[in-house]
C-alpha cells in the first residue's frame, strides 16, 4: 500500500494527454496525424549549436516551436517563404507564435550546427520513436508542448487554412509581438 500511495500522491503517474479539439490541424498523413493532440516527450537532446546536452523543453523555450523532423534546407526555405507571404494572417501568426525553429536530425546521431535554427539529436531514443511517423515533415508544437499540426511542406497551405480561424490566437492568449506591445506604449 505505501508504494501505491507514494505513486499516486507524488504524481508519479501521468496519464497521456490527448486533445481532440482546439488549436490543431491534422494533415493528410494518418500515421503522422496520430501525433496531433499529444504531448511531445521531454527527453535529453544534443544541441549541435552549443555542443551541449540539454532538455528538449529548454531547447524549445517558453513559446511555441516549429520543428522539422529530418527535413532538408530547401523544405525550410519553402516553408519560410510561405509563412512570410504578405496578407497571410495564419502564416504571420504561425511565424510569430511559433518563432523558435528546431531541426531534429532523424537519421544522424550527430546533428549539424545551423545558423538559422537549433539543430538537435535525440540522446535516449524516446524522441526519435515519438517523431518517427513524422520523418520529413514539420511539427507545430504549442507552448504547452502539445503537437498542434504535422505536415509536409507541400501541404503547409492546407494547415494554414485550417489554422486561419485562430489567427487572433495571440490576442486570445494574451501574447503580443514586441512590435504591437511597443505601439501601445508609444
Count of extended strands: 7
Task: Tell me the radius of gyration.
Answer: 17 Å
Give the % helix: 25-40%
Poorly predicted tracts of residues? 169-186
Mean pLDDT: 77
CATH architecture: 3-Layer(aba) Sandwich
Shape: globular
Element order: H for helix, E for strand: HHEEHEHHEEHEEHHH
C-alpha termini separation: 62 Å
> Major beta sheet, specifics?
7 strands, mixed
Provide an overview of this structure.
The chain has helices at 2-9, 30-33, 56-60, 73-83, 89-97, 126-131, 156-163, 169-173, 178-185, and strands at 44-47, 52-55, 65-69, 100-104, 118-122, 137-141, 147-151. It has 186 residues and is of the alpha/beta class. It has one domain: Glutaredoxin (3-Layer(aba) Sandwich). A seven-stranded mixed sheet has the order 2-1-5-4-3-6-7. It is globular.
What is the topological layout?
Blueprint: H1 2-9, H2 30-33, E1 44-47, E2 52-55, H3 56-60, E3 65-69, H4 73-83, H5 89-97, E4 100-104, E5 118-122, H6 126-131, E6 137-141, E7 147-151, H7 156-163, H8 169-173, H9 178-185
Parallel strand pairs: 3-4, 4-5
Antiparallel strand pairs: 1-2, 1-5, 3-6, 6-7
Amino acid at each position: 500500500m505505501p508504494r501505491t500511495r507514494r505513486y499516486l500522491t507524488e504524481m508519479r503517474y501521468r496519464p497521456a494527454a490527448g486533445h481532440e479539439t482546439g488549436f490543431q490541424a491534422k494533415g493528410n498523413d494518418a500515421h503522422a496525424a496520430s501525433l496531433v493532440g499529444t504531448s511531445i516527450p521531454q527527453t535529453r537532446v544534443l544541441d549541435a549549436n552549443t555542443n551541449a546536452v540539454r532538455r528538449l523543453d529548454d531547447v524549445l523555450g517558453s513559446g511555441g516551436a516549429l520543428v522539422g523532423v529530418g527535413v532538408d534546407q530547401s523544405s525550410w526555405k519553402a516553408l519560410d517563404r510561405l509563412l512570410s507571404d504578405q496578407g497571410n494572417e495564419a502564416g504571420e501568426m504561425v511565424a510569430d507564435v511559433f518563432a523558435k525553429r528546431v531541426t531534429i536530425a532523424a537519421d544522424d546521431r550527430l546533428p549539424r550546427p545551423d545558423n538559422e535554427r537549433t539543430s538537435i539529436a535525440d540522446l535516449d531514443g524516446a524522441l526519435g520513436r515519438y517523431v518517427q511517423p513524422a520523418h520529413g515533415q514539420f511539427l507545430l508544437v504549442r507552448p504547452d508542448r502539445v503537437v498542434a499540426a504535422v505536415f509536409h511542406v507541400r501541404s503547409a497551405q492546407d494547415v494554414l487554412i485550417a489554422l486561419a480561424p485562430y489567427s487572433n490566437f495571440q490576442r486570445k492568449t494574451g501574447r503580443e509581438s514586441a512590435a504591437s506591445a511597443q505601439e501601445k506604449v508609444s
